[in-house]
Structure formats: structure tokens, C-alpha cells
Design goal:
86% of the residues lie in helices and 0% in strands. The chain is mainly alpha-helical. The radius of gyration is 17 Å and the shape is flat.
């Protein structure tokens, strides 16, 4: 398995782990609306990541290669739906925007963590 495959598996698993840790931390130290923001933001971004991954796998598998227009259309539909959900959560005062921002950053944090782990592996592999 290549670096890309290891990073994808790591990010996919780390998203759920970081979502759980961030939600539990927010539950312990923050107000309920912040906790809801962290949880819902994390769920939105994690589901979007999984759907994007599935779309790309289906679109780039050799027997069923899709055009880039189909991929972009699905991406923008997901983006629009996510925007509407985020708007409804903030407009209805169900979540705190700061908590939502923290939750929406979960995938970015897991990508940074995966990259740091792979860089560490490469550095220590070179040192041996």
C-alpha cells in the first residue's frame, strides 16, 4: 500500500476518533450550544469527506470512469446542501458558530495529523 492509501485510511478513521474526542471535550468544558456546534460540524464535514471519497472511487474505477462534470456536479450539490444545513443550524440558534467552526475543522486536523505521521515515518526511515 502506498503513502496515499495509508493517508486515506488514517484520515477516514481519525475523522471519527477526533469527532468523538472533540465532542466529549466540548461536553466537559463548554456550553451545550458549543457542544452541539462541535458535534454537528464534525458530522457534516466527516459525512462530506466520506461521500467525496466514495464519489471519487466510483468515478475513477476503470470500468465506470465518469466525466469530470458529473464529479463537479455532485460536489457542488453536496456543498449546497451543507451550506443550507449550516445556515439553518446557525439561523435557528441551535449551535454556537465557534463550536461549529471547530467541528468543521476536524477533517483538516486529521489530514494534518496523517501528514505529520507520514513525514515522521519518512524521516525515521531515512535515518536508519
Amino acid at each position: 500500500m502506498g503513502i496515499q492509501g495509508r493517508i486515506l485510511i488514517f484520515v477516514t478513521r481519525a475523522n471519527w476518533i477526533l469527532l468523538g474526542l472533540a465532542s466529549l471535550t466540548a461536553l466537559a468544558v463548554a456550553a451545550p450550544d458549543v457542544t452541539r456546534g462541535v458535534f454537528f460540524g464534525g458530522v457534516i464535514v466527516t459525512i462530506n469527506f466520506h461521500l467525496l471519497s466514495r464519489t471519487l472511487k466510483k468515478a475513477l474505477t476503470p470500468p465506470h470512469i465518469s466525466s469530470h462534470n458529473v464529479i463537479l456536479a455532485k460536489y457542488y450539490i453536496r456543498f449546497l446542501i451543507s451550506g443550507i444545513v449550516i445556515f439553518l443550524l446557525i439561523a435557528g440558534h441551535y449551535v454556537n458558530p465557534i463550536g461549529l467552526f471547530i467541528g468543521l475543522s476536524i477533517v483538516v486536523a486529521s489530514i494534518i495529523l496523517a501528514t505529520a505521521c507520514e513525514i515522521k515515518k519518512l524521516i525515521f526511515k531515512e535515518a536508519v
